[in-house]
Every structure is written in structure tokens, then in C-alpha cells.
Amino acid sequence: MKIPVYSILFGFLTPHTIKNVDKPVCKDCIYFKNNYFMDPNTGQCTKFGYKNIMSGKIFYEFAEICRKDEKKCGVNGTYYQRHHGFFK
Q1: Is residue 6 part of a domain?
Q2: N or C: which end of the chain has fewer CB within 10 A?
Q3: Domain membership flag for residue 56
Q4: Could you read off the pLDDT of 11-70 as tens digits, one per residue?
């Protein structure tokens, strides 16, 4: 079986990397609130949100939105704090 030389060289020249592999993960943060009844990707960040002044209910931002906004946590996880233990 012959393997073309260009395919071997091409394999070494192209980087095979995963983006953001060194960034912190929201689900490991003390501010992350998992939404158990819906898609787990719809978790919320308890660091950012707002309070309804009429009802007093607090609404949290979605973690994905906070990670995309550099004014909040951003891609680097500015406010990330790892939780230790089984319960938050």
C-alpha cells in the first residue's frame, strides 16, 4: 500500500488543536446554576442578573451569554471561581 508523500507532509503541517481547551468551564464555577429540567446548556450564571422591582424575583443571565460578553465574564472567565466539593 502506497501512501502519497504529500498526505504525510500535509498531516504534519496542519495543526490539530481544540479551541478554548485551556479556558475554565462554567459548570465548575460557584456561580453556575444548572437548569435540571431543561437542556443543561441553558445553565445560568448567578453572578449576573437583575431583580424585578415589582415582584422581587431575581432573573439570572444565561452562562453562555455571559461568556460571550467581555464586559461580563468573557471567554477567559474573568469572574470564574472553582467550587470544591459535591454540593454548591
Answers
A1: no
A2: N
A3: yes
A4: 555 566 888 889 999 989 999 998 877 776 789 999 999 999 999 999 999 999 999 999
Domain that includes residue 68, residue range: 18-88
Number of Cβ within a 10 Å radius of residue 43 = 19
Q: How many domains, the chain?
A: 1
Residue with cell 445560568: 44
Q: How far apart are the first and last CA of the chain?
A: 57
**Is 58 part of any domain?**
yes
Does some domain include residue 9?
Answer: no
